[in-house]
Each structure stands twice: as C-alpha cells, then as structure tokens.
Please model this.
Amino acid sequence: MQLSKDSVVRIRVSSEDAGAISLSPVQHRETPLVELVTWIVSVTGKDAPRIEEILKRGSFVLGLSRMRWEAADDTGCLPEVLDMLPDDWPERPLDEGKIREIEVSAGTRKVAIPGEVARARRWFRAESFLARWLASGVLPQPRYERYDYREQADRFRAVIPMGAIAPFREVVDLLPSSALRGALRAHAPTAITMLVPR
Model:
C-alpha cells in the first residue's frame, strides 16, 4: 500500500485481552492516515523511524485494542503528516477558561473534574475550586508538561506535597458536586493535572 497524507486506511480493530481468547467481533473502520499516525504518536512520540516501521508492519496495539491494516510499502509522506500534528508548547500560559478537565491523582487512583464543574461556584461561596487553586499562594501551581496526543490537549501538572493536604481539602470543599468532594477527600492526593485543548 502506498500512502499519501490524504490516504484513508481500512483498519481491522480487535480486542487485545492478555492471556485470554477474545470473542469480541472484529470491527472495520475507514480511518484517515493522519488519525492513525496520531494514535501511534500518542505512544511513540514523534519518532519517525519507529512510526515508519509500525506503518510498514501493519499492526499496532493501543490500550486493549489491536489494529491491523495492509502493510505500507511507501511512507514518504510521513514527515509531512508529522508536521501536521501539534508540537509541545512550553511557553503556553495556563488559561483558566480553557481548561477542559482536571485530574487529581492519589496513588494509582485518579479523579476527573470537568472544567465547567471546577469553574462553577457552590451556593453562598465567593470562589470556585479552580479560581481558588490558581490564586493560592500555598497550593502548587501546575506547570507545562507536554502535549498529550491521546487527550488532544496540553498537560499542565503539579505534584501536591504533604504540606498542602489541608489547603487541598479546603479548596475541594468549594466543588458543587458532593460526589466529587467525597471522592477527593477519601485519599491523600499526590498530583494534579489540568488539560487544555488547543
């Protein structure tokens, strides 16, 4: 198969359950080459030789899905396709209004807070969770980490030290969702990540 940047690739997608025979049906989908390369880059980064090897092999595992397609003979368009994908933007400022999601990590547990919920104020509270966090002089301020191709967003991250647990619990109390407040109080947080789409 010869590829161009406008190619559409017919992909067979099957479940990849480790150590078990999967009985889930194989799905077929027509996927633009740029989208396929984006999935690969989410794992490999913009490593052109590795991506070229995967395209020529015609097989790739993403999460629990194995994707197969007709092996590529010519991948000369790959540099042009990679140029179409976003690069890291370390100078990007963190814009409160554009945050799509906030992820709080507590060990292996993760709690996701939608951006609109983080910006919303509880009844009789002057500030939102997000406004208080970003204005705080005690809570750690997220710094640019990298562009996340799977999330299609820039990641801003901060480690939460033990000394910030009490202020963290105070700011959690500003969330309008009682379910989120309960989930975030249940475990000591270790990091916070804010996702900002382009």
Observations:
- The helical segments are 33-44, 48-57, 78-84, 115-119, 129-135, 165-172, 178-185.
- The beta strands are 8-15, 27-32, 59-62, 65-68, 101-106, 109-114, 143-148, 153-159, 191-196.
- Residues 96-196 form one domain.
